[in-house]
Amino acid sequence: MVAAPPASHAASWPKDAVVPTLHMNPLDWSFLATESDSTLTHVGGLVVYRAPDSGFGERLTEAYRGYATPAAPFHKKPNTGLLGRVVPHWDVVERIDAEQHVRYHRTAGGRDALRELVSRLHGERMDRAKPMWEIHVIDGAGDGRVAAFMKVHHSLADGVSLVKLAGRTMADRPQRSFLAPMWAQARRRASGGKPAARGGGMLDAVRAQVTSPLALLAAINRVYLPGFAEKALVKPFSAPDSILNGAITSERGVVTCSVALPRAQALAARAGGTVNDVVLAVCAGALREYLGELGKLPGAPLVAAMPISFQPSDSDGTGGNALSFGLATLATEIADPAARYRAIVASTAAAKRHMSRLPRSAILPYTTLFMAPVTTAAVTGLGHRVPPMFNVVISNVPGPQADLFHHGAQLEEWYPASIPMAGQALNITVLSYAGRLHFGFTACAAALPDPGRLAPAADAAMTALERAL
User: Fold this and answer.
1) What spatial distance separates the first Cα and last Cα of the chain, rounded to whole Å?
2) Residue 101 annotated among the catalytic residues of the structure
3) pTM of the model
């Protein structure tokens, strides 16, 4: 049976938890500023367990509810007062009402019912009066499986951080001891428990103040300035109009499928490029088929925005967002899968060269500048009325490759769910786990007809790519 949490945990603040500063970085703030009743800026993760016995879901729920003392980043909520509107910052919460954050569901109907429930839950806006995260334990996922769907507002953490935090609640073998859930994991310091090393003091600070603006100017020149711009580099706002970029509502459709990771690795090894290039090519093929069947495929190539994580390797995942974006063509105007793949490889290589030239101190200013038009369009509600900077966000998040267990239950599947935004009716996020690529298509179901067709289209695109290469 699932063990209960230590009695002392619910009554005390973890001694080694580090209360973060109330400062909110601009990227965290942007996920709050762009949110509306139709643009919901939380992310989610759907995991499916092989339950060790009946009653596992209910016992897991009760055990979760025993953890009422949250740790970073799950212990903060945005200040919604007048000062918080002028100077965005966080308030820290020392205790939560666990029943508001941990909920239990029982469904009948297997995977179809699970998909409908998760789609509905993902379409509900989160309450800013409390820390913006919740977990739903779901019995009835089919064949004795139990699922859990966790929602976390993107202002608290990015996908890479959340996968890292979730991994700390897992074991590499079946066992019954209860590991604290991710919202109750005390923050770990970097560098083996020692404070992170400081930089070179005043000299480094001065160097960053000088080099960051110059690097930012050089990056802009590489995109726009004739004679400096790289030919293979996709320019912002070069994306065609498509039904992917219309008005959206809060209605969500979360669609999942998976592909064996070794298949993608074999393709990348044989044809050049990376597993991420294979992911983009599979998504491109799926979108080409889906839009083609609807008679809505643009003549110009679709453009993807690729989130790029800049979390330090020793980050504990609690420090908020650290990411930027690159643009790549999906070459959807090309019928031949092999030629389409080669075009994608050339495009992503150019994007990587471009981003690699930015020093770390310039990444946040570059990202803020790059995303300013998207943020402004979303805040004003005009995202679907202006030309799209890109057509779709496609994110590839690395996850653990060994089989994991959660309180005696084997974790079999791990799917991400993400954010359609104003003028961006589809997000595709892929998470690798235990030798498989788990695709999560998160669509505005009101804007895109029958998004469930994207899953078989992705399977067909993978097969077509293997044959072509």
Assistant:
1) 49
2) no
3) 0.84
One-letter amino acid identity for 195?
A: P
Residue length, the chain? 469
- Cβ-proximal residues to 311 (8 Å cutoff; 6+ apart), any chain: 158, 160, 161, 164, 317, 319, 322, 323
Of 154, 354, 407, 438, catalytic: 154
Cα dihedral 332, 334, 338, 343 in deg (nearest 10): -70
Classify residue 15 as exposed, middle or buried by CB count within 10 Å of its CB (0-12, 13-18, 19+).
exposed
Phi/psi for 192 (5° steps) reads: 65, 35
The DSSP symbol for 5 reads: P
Q: What is the distance between the alpha carbons of residues 282 and 277, in angstroms, rounded to a whole number? A: 9
Q: Are 68 and 95 in contact (CB under 8 A)?
A: yes
At how many degrees (to 10) do helices 337-356 and 454-468 cross? 100
Q: Pairing state of beta strands 392-397 and 426-433?
A: parallel
Q: What is the pLDDT along the chain (469 residues), one digit of tens a residue?
A: 555 554 434 333 333 333 444 688 888 898 999 899 999 999 999 999 999 999 999 999 999 999 999 999 999 999 988 888 888 999 999 999 999 999 999 999 899 999 999 999 999 999 999 999 999 999 999 898 999 999 999 999 988 889 989 999 999 888 756 789 999 986 544 334 343 344 444 344 434 444 556 666 666 666 655 555 567 789 888 999 999 999 999 999 999 999 999 999 999 999 999 999 999 999 999 999 999 999 999 999 999 999 876 655 555 555 555 567 889 999 999 999 999 999 999 999 998 888 877 777 777 777 777 777 777 776 676 667 778 999 999 999 999 999 999 999 999 999 999 999 888 999 999 999 999 999 999 999 999 999 999 999 999 999 999 999 9
Question: Is 244 in contact with 387 (CB distance < 8 Å)?
Answer: no
